[in-house]
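pipeline: protein-struct stage 2 | run 1193 | Alkylation response protein AidB-like acyl-CoA dehydrogenase
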Amino acid sequence: MVFMDMERRALDEYLPGLADRLAGFELTELETDGNPGIEAFRACGGAKLVVPERFGGSGASIVDAARVLRELAALAPSTAVAAMMHQFSVTTLVAAVEQDPQEFAAFPDLLAAISGKRMLLASGFAEGMRGQNILEPTLRAERTDGGYLLNGVKKPCSLSGSMDLLTASVAVPGPDGTPALGIALIPADAEGLTVAPFWSSFALAGAESNEVRLDDVLLAPEQLVNPPLEKALPLQMLGLVHFQLSVCAVYTGVVSALVRRVLAQSRGSVTDRADLIVEIESAALTAEAVARRVLADEPVDRALAAVQVARFATQESLGRVVNRAVELLGGMAYVSSSDVGYLAAAAHGIAFHPPSRTSAAGAIVESFPA
């Protein structure tokens, strides 16, 4: 068995040729703004990875999709982060169609277009604002003649430069003025949609995570779906489950790139290397166990509780593996190339994806009463 052999096979099966394309570039080239990674992902079929086969997609399961993301992140972290956000949007659309095809009648054609036209979707669902409930939209819609006017800002928004469509949760005023959840499908070239620089860090700069601003963007009625709360809430919860599993896969992949270097160079003792393998593979298997519970139709509230546990357990494990792997690779590896320091920095990104440990703590405790 080769380290991450299942992940590499999954990448080659679902996105043939992508690994070879990425291998032609240095890590530093793939991690800068305007890098070739995202377009390579698109060209090799990345847009349709999790689209069901009946809509022309590849139909990757949640387990296989996680394996693809892990290997992709080991090769090109920024591209994997961008792919993760695309998959978050697509899996939400898929879940909506499976829940109620009539309520979400516009989504099947969109899923077919994603597959056929290789469309990439930016996500406006998970919000990164301090103190913001990630299930509460920051974008606002108001009814007007001909549809809806949308206003608000999404930042950071990955794929801001390569997106064909922005999918976003929006607050839509109901008949009594109380905001209700809507799902908006916003073309990247919509009048009033602008992109501005936002991401200033060198880490994961290639994911195109900039500011997307909506100023009186007009959407036709069919471009905004306003489902009842009893349908919208389970969709949001299931979307968060998929998102957290993708977060685990991506950052496990980033750290696996360091472990792969340790193993390839036989750094440290056999025990040192075995300890790294045990910890990194335990993290991957923990997330996969939750993914398999989702495949087995685990109730969404139980799946959400389990994935929160997996996310923070993975976060802790990866922190330990990063420190040990960097130490084992040694000072010369650290100073002779920027790759080791870069991967170590990028790995810390897992801590900044919502929800934060503090905001999730109460829900975790409530999910496991004595």
